[in-house]
């Protein structure tokens, strides 16, 4: 455990970690508080709450082709700082729009704020790759997973408590302060120029559409030509399938099978159980990853996760279902930590922004397709057991695929590229 947290001796990483933490805090508090506000203020229009969720995810489809290019072309530190400052300003505009009470304006500002947020993570992760040593990448991935699990466990409660205590205005002010603190922490980092500007200095005005499109295409070709990288990114598609499936199928089995009269209360308890499991799994995976080959963590994580998702469909006991879900939550971080720790080792730092820029849209696409299949097939074509086997079966199949292809890639542990025979795309 001491070895895991020794990474915080790196002052730049500590500031980046805290900046990421406060930035996510602002996003979660604002999104959750506003959902409660919509449900209170417009209780007869639940579609507003759904639109709120859409305004958080939809911008990915509009900016995914640009975020990675900017993270590789422009100053990564400035991108991360500017996203925080812009979101702080948009939060103030958000507060004003709520006072005005015009719903279209409110959702438009939420859309803009979410679109700006998409630029933060690729730039921040590319900086992390540059300031850490190779043997620290897996630890950083584990800590990142730990933060995500904490927000999974306490995020909604944090937003709800802020809303109940300070109202929607107070929650948005907390939002704004969080973004400002994140920006100041990022500004305090002393990042070497070769990490901030891996491809040299470029000006925003010089980025024409043809240049952006070429860089975007280069990033896609880099992923497809790099067989190990392409294989690992399949794992993120699986996360989209699991996220999409697990956003609805636990509620379905509680409502239609295990607890028809108390499914709402049981779903809250399940969320707590799952969040605790992910948190424990994140800490455990970060420690084990120092001693076990990463591809083994990925393979066994996928096989265990998929198997217990499928087994969950056979139980008639809430206690057993919660126990099986706990094991699923425990296994997921092993996959995420291993993939997140492996990626920085095999991706050229000059291409890291474009690679990271592909991950979110791929996950979202897989999540959307999964939800679409579920919506189209349940309950007319596919029953509850079929849904669990759909998600669990996909996960098991990818685990088997990785068991076949990943061991031969273990030799690729250089920090340059996954395959030295792949020519680096030129950047002019």
From TrEMBL:
Q: How does it sit in the membrane?
A: Multi-pass membrane protein
Record bears the keyword Membrane? yes
Keyword list (alphabetical) reads:
Cell membrane, Membrane, Transmembrane, Transmembrane helix, Transport
Q: Which GO terms describe its cellular component?
A: plasma membrane
Q: Where are the transmembrane segments?
A: 16-39, 54-73, 85-112, 161-186, 228-254, 266-287, 294-312, 318-342, 362-381, 387-405
The UniProt record lists the keyword Phosphoprotein: no
InterPro entries, from UniProt?
Answer: MFS (IPR011701), MFS_dom (IPR020846), MFS_trans_sf (IPR036259)
Xref: Gene3D superfamilies: MFS general substrate transporter like domains
Q: Where in the cell is it found?
A: Cell membrane
Pfam family for this entry, one: MFS_1
CDD domains assigned: MFS_MefA_like (cd06173)
GO MF annotation list: transmembrane transporter activity
- Annotated Major facilitator superfamily (MFS) profile domain ranges read 12-410
Q: Which SUPFAM superfamilies does the annotation name?
A: MFS general substrate transporter
Task: Read off the PANTHER family from this record.
Answer: MACROLIDE-EFFLUX PROTEIN
Could you identify this protein by its name?
A: MFS transporter
- Which organism's genome codes for this protein? Chengkuizengella marina
Tell me the classification of the organism that encodes this protein: Bacteria, Bacillati, Bacillota, Bacilli, Bacillales
């Amino acid at each position: 455990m001491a070895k895991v947290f020794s990474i915080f001796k790196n002052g730049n990483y500590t500031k980046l970690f805290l900046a990421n933490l406060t930035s996510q805090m602002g996003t979660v508090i604002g999104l959750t508080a506003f959902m409660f506000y919509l449900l209170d203020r417009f209780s007869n229009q639940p579609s507003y709450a759904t639109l709120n969720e859409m305004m958080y995810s939809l911008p990915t489809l509009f900016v995914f082709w640009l975020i990675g290019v900017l993270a590789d072309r422009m100053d990564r530190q400035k991108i991360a700082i500017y996203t925080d400052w812009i979101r702080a300003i948009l939060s103030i505009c958000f507060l004003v729009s709520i006072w005005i009470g015009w719903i279209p304006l409110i959702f438009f500002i939420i859309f803009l704020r979410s679109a700006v947020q998409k630029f933060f993570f690729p730039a921040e992760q590319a900086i992390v790759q540059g300031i850490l040593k190779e043997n620290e990448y897996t630890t950083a991935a584990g800590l990142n997973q730990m933060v995500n699990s904490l927000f999974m466990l306490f995020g909604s409660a944090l937003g709800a408590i802020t809303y109940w205590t300070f109202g929607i205005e107070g929650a948005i002010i907390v939002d704004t302060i969080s973004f400002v603190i994140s920006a100041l922490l990022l500004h305090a980092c002393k990042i070497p120029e070769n990490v901030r500007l891996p491809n040299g200095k470029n000006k925003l005005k010089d980025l024409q559409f043809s240049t952006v499109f070429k860089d975007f295409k280069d990033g896609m070709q880099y992923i497809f030509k790099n067989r190990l990288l392409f294989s690992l990114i399949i794992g993120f598609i699986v996360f989209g399938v699991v996220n999409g499936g697990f956003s609805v199928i636990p509620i379905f089995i509680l409502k239609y099978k295990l607890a028809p009269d108390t499914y709402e209360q049981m779903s809250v308890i399940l969320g707590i159980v799952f969040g605790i499991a992910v948190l424990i799994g994140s800490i455990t995976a970060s420690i084990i990853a120092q001693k076990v080959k990463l591809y083994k963590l990925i393979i066994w994580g996928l096989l265990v996760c998929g198997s217990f998702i499928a087994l969950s469909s056979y139980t008639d006991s809430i206690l057993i279902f919660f126990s099986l879900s706990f094991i699923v939550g425990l296994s997921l971080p092993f996959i995420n930590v291993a993939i997140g720790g492996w990626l920085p080792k095999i991706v050229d730092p000059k291409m890291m922004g474009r690679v990271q820029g592909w991950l979110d849209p791929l996950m979202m696409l897989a999540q959307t397709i999964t939800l679409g299949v579920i919506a189209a097939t349940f309950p007319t074509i596919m029953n509850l057991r079929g849904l669990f086997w759909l998600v669990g079966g996909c996960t098991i199949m990818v685990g088997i695929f990785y068991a076949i292809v990943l061991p031969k890639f273990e030799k690729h542990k250089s920090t340059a590229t996954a395959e030295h025979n792949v020519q680096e795309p030129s950047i002019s």
